[in-house]
Amino acid sequence: MQNSLFYNKLYAWYESNHRILPWRETENAYHIWLSEVILQQTRVAQGLSYYLRFVERWPCVEDLAEAEETEVLREWQGLGYYSRARNLHKAAQMIVAKGWSPFPTRFEDLWALPGVGEYTAGAIASFAYNAPYPAMDGNVYRVVARLLDIEEAFDTTAGKKLFHKQIEDMLDRDNARLFNSAIMEFGALYCTPVLGDACVSCPLQSFCAGFAHGIADLLPVRKPRAKVRDRWLTYHVYVQRDNVQGTTDAVYTLIQRRENPKDIWYHLYEFPCEEHSSQPSAISHQLSFTHVLSHQKIHARFIVHPVPKMPEIPGTMIIRWEDLNDYALSRLTLRALDTLQHKA
Ligand code: SF4
After folding, report:
1. pLDDT at 8
2. Confidence band, pLDDT 50/70/90 cuts, at residue 55
3. How far, in Å, CA of 200 to CA of 144, rounded?
4. Element (H, E) at 230
């Protein structure tokens, strides 16, 4: 659909409606990469403050490469999907080691970075260098599915290939930066999952096969969702108070680091944890809640144990309660801390 009237309508809409976002106002590839990784699975409103903090703390890729992994995880805290933060750090080290600073310019080198898939490589190449690559995020899949009436699921291997071919044909190769920005923003703000009466006054309506066939709001199609797995965790919050001459001097607790790279929250810290294979019998606990991740539903309960002396549990370490925030903690642990702070 390479058609100058289509581009003109899309760009005119973009000029009048787009949001001012710091990563769209720069051609600094490192900053654009940071924003793309932060915004994977994260809403713009939430990702913005993380982006600003990362750019301020590590203004160039060399700075990020020199950071400790634990500092990066700490700064990432609350965003979830921590493998993104670990990959960010590994990629920065790879860029420096390979002499690609300030940032790789070839699409193949971008794609070779840990955590950078075809979409992110295309986004960086087009936004930073105006190179003719598409950037397919969820918003773009939706707009393309509707414009071209594609009824194949977009999240299967065959579907991805088909969509990729279509967007390659649609791409404005001389203006990839503008085209990708505009179509993403159009999906984010106008051609949204719930359409309402947007189609009625849509500037792209005359190009939209989904609208012409009356099925735009049924698109895009997804493959059926994977089943969500239930997990039951009991956390033991040991609290030891040291009293010096009758006054409370310090409060200590025990934490451990999660060491299974194939499991959630790898390398994050939490209270000693016991996992049950099925729903455990009820016992008295101080706090419980359900924490939902993409493929897992965590049923967590926390038991506070006031102790005169810490038990010896392999793999744990004793820290001051007030130092808990110096460690990269899972979101679940942070949620629990909101309540437990008052009990320790
Ligand atoms: Fe999206 Fe409706 Fe416009 Fe088609 S007509 S592009 S479905 S808003």
Report:
1. 97
2. very high
3. 18
4. strand 229-244
Distant-in-sequence contacts of 13-21, Cβ < 8 A, 24+ apart: 13/182, 13/186, 13/190, 13/203, 13/204, 14/178, 14/181, 14/182, 14/185, 14/186, 17/185, 17/189, 17/190, 18/181, 18/182, 18/185, 18/189, 19/44, 19/185, 19/189, 21/48
Please report the pLDDT score of residue 282 as a whole number: 78
CA 2, CA 24: separation in Å to the nearest integer? 24
Ligand 1 pocket: which of 14, 148, 189, 191 to mutate (most atoms <8 Å of CB)? 191
**Residues of 303-331 as b/e, b for ≥16 C-beta within 10 angstroms?**
bbeeeeebeeeeebeeeebeebeebbbbb
Q: What is the pLDDT confidence band of residue 285, given thresholds at 50, 70 and 90?
A: confident
* Active site annotation includes 274: no
Please give the distance, rounded to the nearest whole angstrom, from the Cα atom of residue 143 to the centre of ligand 1.
7
Residue type at 158? A
Does the structure show a pLDDT above 60 at 128? yes
Is residue 216 within 8 Å of residue 192, measured between CB atoms? no
Question: What residues contact residue 332 under an 8 Å CB cut-off, 6+ apart?
Answer: 265, 270, 291, 298, 300
> C-alpha distances in angstroms, 35 versus 7, 41, 82, 127, 214?
26, 12, 15, 11, 36
Share of the chain above pLDDT 90, in %: 76
